[in-house]
Amino acid sequence: MTAKPAAAAARATVYGYPRQGQNRELKKAIEGYWKGRVDADTLRRTAAELRRGTWQQLAEAGVHEVPTGDFSYYDHVLDTSVMVGAVPERHREAVRTDALDGYFAMARGTQDVAPLEMTKWFDTNYHYLVPELGPDTVFTADSAKQVAELKEALALGHTPRPVLVGPVTYLLLAKAAPGVAADFEPLTLLDRLLPVYAEVLADLRAAGAEWVQLDEPALVQDRTPAELNAAARAYRELGGLTDRSKLLVASYFGRLGEALPVLAKSPVEGLALDFTESGAANLGDLAAAGGLPGKRLVAGVVNGRNIWINDYEKSLATLGTLLGLADHVDVSASSSLLHVPLDAAAEQDIDPQVARWLAFARQKTQEIVVLARGLSAGTEAIAAELAANRADLASRADAVITRDPAVRARTAAITDADGRRSQPYAERTLAQRAHLGLPLLPTTTIGSFPQTTELRTARADLRAGRIDEAGYEERIKDEIREVLSFQEKAGIDVLVHGEPERNDMVQYFAEQLTGYLATQHGWVQSYGTRYVRPPVLAGDISRPEPMTVRWTAYAQSLTERPVKGMLTGPVTMLAWSFVRDDQPLGETARQVALALRDEVNDLEANGTSVIQVDEPALRETLPLRAAEHAAYLQWATESFRLATSGVRPDTQIHTHMCYAEFGDIVQAIDDLDADVISLEAARSHMQVARELAAHGYPREAGPGVYDIHSPRIPSTEEAAALLRKGLEAIPAERLWVNPDCGLKTRGWPETRTSLENLVAAAREIRAELPTEAA
């Protein structure tokens, strides 16, 4: 069937694009600046070259309108805080002295000043810097970055569309600043913030912006009537401005729901909506709302968060329906392409058949352009592309890699008993305490130790053939011995081997499981200069042989203290991969859980008494709508218990979570039935400890006292103060002492001092405990 051409040609566009460059040039330049090897002018030139290259690539691909302002040195929410003048008091002097160094101080902190809190951007693995606001916050406009990047694009001959975080989302993402009452609602500052946005919009209009995009993804979550009224007021006021560009309000990551009629009725010129699987309901909702007469609709029909090729015929059918619901329909991805790697063509080691199924940012850009051409000129204009797309989709559906009968038979045989420990926590904790003999306030770390230049060099030398496997393994053994020796001298109670053999906490396991594929260049930003390469989960999952037993057993042979086995949990293995979209997530999670169950049991059989199965993504993957929470949490917690419930009562199961808001999943944390949980808590001043206490959490917990995402070295006094806060919520017999997260990204000098201070703080607090407790 031929799609009806639009009255005006459909335009291709994107909401945002990966920032790092083909070879992570931005990461290298920023880290070089931090180390003093790159000056500020060189860093700025590198950034400008990357922006120029992105816009040129988009334009050459056929994108008609390129985004500006989405580029960031660290985080786009932090950029918004700078744009509206929401700089915390403790950072103002640094910003006044040097704007760039002050910006990085807000992101990373300094030895004397703590950074902003960091948490997950909706249900993605991207982290943003949380704005700190209070009733005394005074907003002031600073549009210099946004205007400068707009002018850069105009000077190069592009049609730019500045992208800003919308005012409602910005306030909904913020939290009360330190010292402000916890029940303070940042959204009460909306009337104070809107004039600042008006000033920025006027500046962008004066600089030549025809359209400005205001991102409001927070509106796809459940919102109260007061929050929806705030959104209506915001866009009634901004839409009513006379000195502004046309406004495109963008939502993504799902169904806009109750906010759709609010925005549809507002005096803005366009809306951008998600029409992929997560936002499919937007189609019916839009029709029910009477469409968007007189407005532009940007239709997100290409998945901006996964890496599978688009189904052209399905997308064209959606686009054809949308032609009757808006005055003008343009084509885009469902979200910024920030969340996918740059170019699938760079992956030369992936099976050519599988490579046909993959679309990274550049390929998704091409898909958007093809769909825009098909919508404008009819399907005859893209007949060749449609035929190739049909063949590629059929190839994937019929591929042997996607289905393993043995794996499916095993998952079908799972029983309820497989997901339950043989004894309840109250009984098995007695066995664990007797077996492990740990003191009150036991100290440990989360798993990884610094990945030194020597380790990375050894890994590169092995790949290049400069050393053989035996030489590489000796280097790993040396590192494990050094890590264990340090921990013993520092006085840490439960040790780790430091994970020197591991490249990434998901990729390392993915490379040893069937059904997973690893990329060489598939880098995606997690936060700041931290980039990860999510593996591709393409088929059924199984574990051919043990993955961690050898190195964990070697480490245990070197010490009398317990050494934790370290694994990544099933939910995180999915969340931090590009997961298959051809079966329910819960089914895939059960497959991964069974593979991990085999590993957990083998670790125990080889003498490991403490096993940590990390699930930092449990909260991150929580659906954005409350109606979907129960179904997700059921399979998520079941998969964790399935992985960990086959051990003896005296084997202690740990889990770890970090950098998310945990208050709304405490019951799910309880349902995991882990013996010990460690959580990020340093930047949030032990908030999670209070949340656990309010729930009545009955097990052991280690809220972190060392923020490892900052170069700051916490003093003994600082760590002790946090421990005292922890003890106000968690009794000493159930409180552990640990960092927020793994130490992979830190250097050895700061790691040594910080952990020594952590142990000293634990000893200091133990000495303060009543005699009967100690």
Question: What descriptive keywords fit this protein?
Answer:
20 strands; methyltransferase; metal-binding; alpha/beta; seven-stranded parallel β-sheet; five-stranded parallel β-sheet; disordered N terminus; 774 residues; Met_Synth_C/arc; 28 helices; 12% strand
- Shape label: globular
Strand arrangement within the widest β-sheet reads 1-5-7-8-9-10-11
Structural class: alpha/beta
- How far the N terminus sits from the C terminus, by CA atoms, comes to 77 Å
What is the count of DSSP helices, taking H or I runs of 4+ residues?
28
Sheet of most strands: 7 strands, parallel
Number of strands: 20
- Give the uncertain stretches in residue-range form: 1-6
Helicity, as a percent range: 40-55%
From the alpha-carbon coordinates, what is the Rg to the nearest angstrom? 26 Å
Average pLDDT number: 95
What oligomeric state do the depicted chains represent?
single chain
- Assess the beta-strand content as a share of residues: 5-15%
Layout of SSEs?
Elements: H1 25-34, H2 40-61, E1 66-68, H3 76-83, H4 89-97, H5 99-108, E2 118-120, E3 127-129, E4 132-133, H6 144-155, E5 160-165, H7 167-173, E6 175-176, H8 190-207, E7 211-215, H9 225-239, E8 246-250, H10 259-264, E9 270-274, H11 281-288, E10 292-302, H12 312-322, E11 326-333, H13 352-355, H14 361-377, H15 383-397, H16 405-412, H17 425-436, H18 453-464, H19 469-490, H20 507-510, E12 514-517, E13 524-527, E14 530-532, E15 536-542, H21 549-556, E16 564-568, H22 570-575, H23 585-605, E17 610-614, H24 629-644, E18 652-657, H25 666-671, E19 676-679, H26 687-695, E20 700-703, H27 716-727, H28 748-768
Parallel strand pairs: 1-5, 4-6, 5-7, 7-8, 8-9, 9-10, 10-11, 16-17, 17-18, 18-19, 19-20
Antiparallel strand pairs: 2-3, 12-15, 13-14
